[in-house]
Amino acid sequence: MATERIVIFDTTLRDGEQAPGAAMTIPEKIQIAHQLARLNVDVIEAGFPISSPGQFEAVRRIAQEVQGPTICALSRAKRADVEAAGKALEGSDNTRIHTFIATSDIHLKSKFADERYGKTLADKRESVKEMAVEAILLSKTFTDDVEFSAEDAGRTDLKYLCEVVSAAIQAGATTINLPDTTGYCISDEYAALIADVMECCGGNEDVIFSTHCHDDLGLAVGNSLAGILAGARQVECTINGIGERAGNAALEEVVMALVVRENYFSLTTEVDAKLLFETSKMVSTFTGFVVQPNKGIVGRNAFAHEAGIHQDGVLKARETYEIMRAEDVGQDSQSIRLGRHSGRHGLFSRMEKLGMEVSEDEKDKLYADFVQLADRKKEINDIDLYNLVHENESAMNHPHYKLEQFNVSVGTDKQPEATVRVRHVRHDSVVEKVATGDGPIDALFRAIDHAVNEGHDLVNYTIRSISEGADAFGEVSVLIGLGGPLFAGKASSTDVIYASAEAYMNALNSMAAHRADEESIQFVATGIMQAFDRGSA
Ligand code: KIV
Ligand code: ZN
Q1: Which CATH architecture has domain 4-287?
Q2: What's the pTM value of the predicted model, to 2 decimals?
Q3: Using a 6 Å cutoff on CB, does residue 148 contact ligand 1?
Q4: Which of 108, 339, 418, 535 could cross-link with 447 by S-S, CB 3.0 to 4.6 Å?
């Protein structure tokens, strides 16, 4: 069977931004629009120009600057709205006006209560139909590509919906969208709605029917897929499923359902799935909406296996527990998460990947230590594994260096500066140093380096929030070394500068302990050699 194409209509910048708290700046929206173009979506709904000068400007600039997808502007079925949309899109040739009006009786009674829309419900229905037609005709004077949405189609009387949609098609609408505005429909119902409206108003091959599903009952993606099985060929969706209330259908889930189950749908999209994860991260960063770890496709656990049985299965054959590859959506291919449910196979294969040599004799003790640590920590990362092998904790019990005091100052008109006082425990001496740096942490690390004076490079520094809010706990991990083995340090605190200092000192102490061990081995070896030389002389 020939594969048909689904038009991916991304509304992250319009319906997505309507999520309470998701507002983005114009430069952020432009960056997202460029990313959506790289992702290769077909249509970008860039905003609702009449609603504010900022929205107008965002749509205008995206239409001017972003090449590839059709750029769409939303308007109510009102002259001023359509004109604002047309003006915002002016000068670009690949544009669409998306005009909408509510059609359900619930909406008609509340939004069109005023008698100027008619006294009876029948009169109001007639007025709404006329307004839709007028808005479409006006939109057509700006662009040939006009989409009409019957808002709350999911709760609209079918006969009336067919009347409005037929009138919209006659007026020139090229896309007909049937939104389940309130996320009320169950999948079979939504599929029937699409099929029924297509049956009564279909026949024009140039008209595409579209789904637009909200997630109030957690059915947005399922309903969108049911809609396309019923004949819709456009899906309206958002990155990470953000949107009004519970959100919209998640673009990444819809796209990957079509990829993974192509054998079922026989439908494709043009989306470059490898960019899904980075697009998700960009939207999450700009909106401030954290992606839940268990979110499909783009959640950090979407490809992670912690249970021993699963790890063992995946390590033997990936498809045992995976229906797609992390790399296919741009996620890290490291799928084995080490935690309290992990088994030996998972642990030692990760250590092998990290180049850590573990002899058979060491394995039992190492696994026992790992299990003990996993009972105290949610997740064991690579740095923990280095610690485990290098017995970092014993170094912490007998530190070579203690950071007795530090001060960091930053300001708008000065370079960040750090002062530190470090005790060299073995020599019972104290060293005080000052340094400036590119930021407060750089300044602090430089000052500590001067005070400790142990040659090394900073190999890795990561910071992650392990709770939410302005007083969130920050967990800092540091990895240092100089050619040979690496030494890790970790600390967490609500004060990220404090956590950074502590993590850095832990890594330095670990390295100092290792170097001291090597020196004493060397000292003993030299002593033996000297005694041997004397004896043989
Ligand atoms: O949910 C909805 O009905 C909408 C329309 C404006 C298409 O977002
Ligand atoms: Zn919507």
Answers
A1: Alpha-Beta Barrel (3.20)
A2: 0.72
A3: no
A4: 418
